[in-house]
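Lab meeting, item 3. Inverse folding demo.
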């Protein structure tokens, strides 16, 4: 029963994220992008170019040219993903055309920046909800599933450059450059929404005095420390590695503790994009 409740909550959370993402992403078009002829990549970018040339509605055109990708996505991604993506694409496309929002600015640079932020936040939420809004989003997600070391944002940036070339030819080169700015901002915000803003730090320590450092970290910072069993590549000797995840405010004290125990310790610190569990945000959240 508890597992069923958790699953139901996850499904509700996914659809809430999808709906909110569609709303935010769609708002970017009437507020910033469409009035300033900025094609933000993908099939909606193509639809924006067609809107400039023939005054066809962006959302409707985008929906129509998404059909072939959905046929491919159904086979490659499975029913649940495609069903959610179909809902997201329908809602996203309809909201682009139906939201009665006036343009906030006629300055192309501001439109590219703020439109990119809104669109990236929306697309990121849709992706976190286990869907895409179709177009190159779906293509990027399919590729990402096979090559997970390449982020969705980077894939979108590469794929969306094609529609920018269309904008440069059909509209004006200057507006294609604004579109590139928009795409870059969108891709960065997507990664921030999906991965989280890197605040916490994963700190690794290799030292002959690892036991002393471990006890000092546990006693002084009140943080858990994990001992990873490793081996020196040159010496072949056992070299335990200490791993401790800390907030940015604790880094100064962490370095002082290690330095006081062993000035020759080897330390490296990386960003931890999302930390869940004891001492941080609960996994259930």
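The presenter then showed the designed sequence:
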């Amino acid at each position: 029963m508890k597992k069923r409740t958790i699953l139901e909550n996850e499904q509700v959370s996914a659809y809430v994220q999808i709906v909110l993402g569609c709303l935010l992403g769609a708002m970017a078009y009437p507020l910033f992008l469409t009035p300033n002829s900025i094609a933000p990549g993908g099939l909606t970018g193509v639809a924006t170019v067609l809107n400039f040339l023939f005054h066809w509605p962006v959302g409707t055109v985008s929906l129509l040219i998404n059909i072939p990708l959905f046929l491919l996505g159904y086979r490659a991604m499975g029913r649940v993903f495609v069903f959610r993506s179909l809902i997201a694409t329908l809602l996203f496309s309809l909201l682009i055309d139906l939201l009665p929002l006036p343009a906030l600015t006629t300055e192309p640079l501001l439109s590219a920046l703020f439109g990119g932020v809104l669109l990236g936040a929306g697309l990121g939420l849709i992706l976190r909800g286990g869907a895409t809004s179709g177009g190159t989003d779906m293509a990027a997600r399919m590729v990402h599933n096979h090559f997970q070391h390449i982020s969705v944002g980077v894939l979108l940036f590469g794929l969306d450059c094609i529609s920018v070339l269309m904008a440069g030819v059909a509209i004006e080169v200057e507006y294609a450059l604004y579109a590139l700015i928009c795409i870059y901002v969108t891709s960065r915000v997507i990664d921030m929404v999906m991965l989280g803003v890197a605040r916490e730090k994963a700190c690794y320590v290799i030292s002959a005095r690892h036991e002393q450092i471990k006890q000092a970290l546990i006693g002084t910072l009140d943080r858990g420390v994990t001992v990873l069993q490793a081996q020196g590549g040159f010496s072949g000797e056992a070299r335990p590695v200490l791993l401790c995840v800390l907030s940015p405010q604790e880094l100064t004290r962490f370095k002082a503790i290690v330095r006081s125990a062993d000035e020759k310790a080897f330390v490296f610190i990386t960003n931890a994009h999302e930390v869940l569990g004891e001492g941080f945000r609960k996994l259930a959240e």
